[in-house]
Specification:
- With about 130 residues, the protein is mainly alpha-helical.
- Helices cover about 70% and strands about 0% of the residues.
- The protein has 4 helices and no strands.
- The longest helix has about 60 residues.
Length: about 130
């Protein structure tokens, strides 16, 4: 029942004939139900908080990766090194912070954008499909 006065009246009618032992058992069961509801509510809140924290961490990592990728392109551009659309996409699609950090360092000394992807430099993700 969703109407509180009716629910209270029904509960009073159902419990009117309880002896002391039945009443104690009824109260204990009610408290157990409330405790379970509280535990579920707490677990739900904790789950939401954990989800928000994970989302923030993922967002920060994505933002860092995007910033590093743009940094790689910025260094190459400042050095007047041509970057093809495929190379640009490969750089922007990379989400590996270690690779992107390596590319920024390498971008200061390469003579072509293609050198960033050289296996000998050890900083290469797979080509974009």
């Amino acid at each position: 029942l969703s109407d509180p006065p009716l629910r209270d009246a029904l509960e009073a009618a159902n419990t009117a004939g309880f002896n002391e032992e039945e009443w104690d058992s009824y109260i204990r069961n009610g408290m157990a139900i409330q405790s379970e509801r509280g535990a579920l509510s707490l677990a739900t809140k904790q789950g939401r908080a954990e989800g928000r924290a994970e989302g923030r961490a993922e967002g920060r990592a994505e933002g860092l990766a995007k910033g590093l990728a743009e940094g790689v392109l910025g260094v190459l551009e400042a050095r007047s090194i041509h970057v093809s659309s495929e190379q640009k996409a490969r750089i922007l699609d990379c989400s590996d912070i270690a690779i992107l950090s390596g590319w920024i360092r390498e971008a200061t000394s390469v003579t072509s954008a293609g050198e960033l992807f050289s296996e000998s430099r050890g900083n290469f993700p797979p080509k974009r499909e």
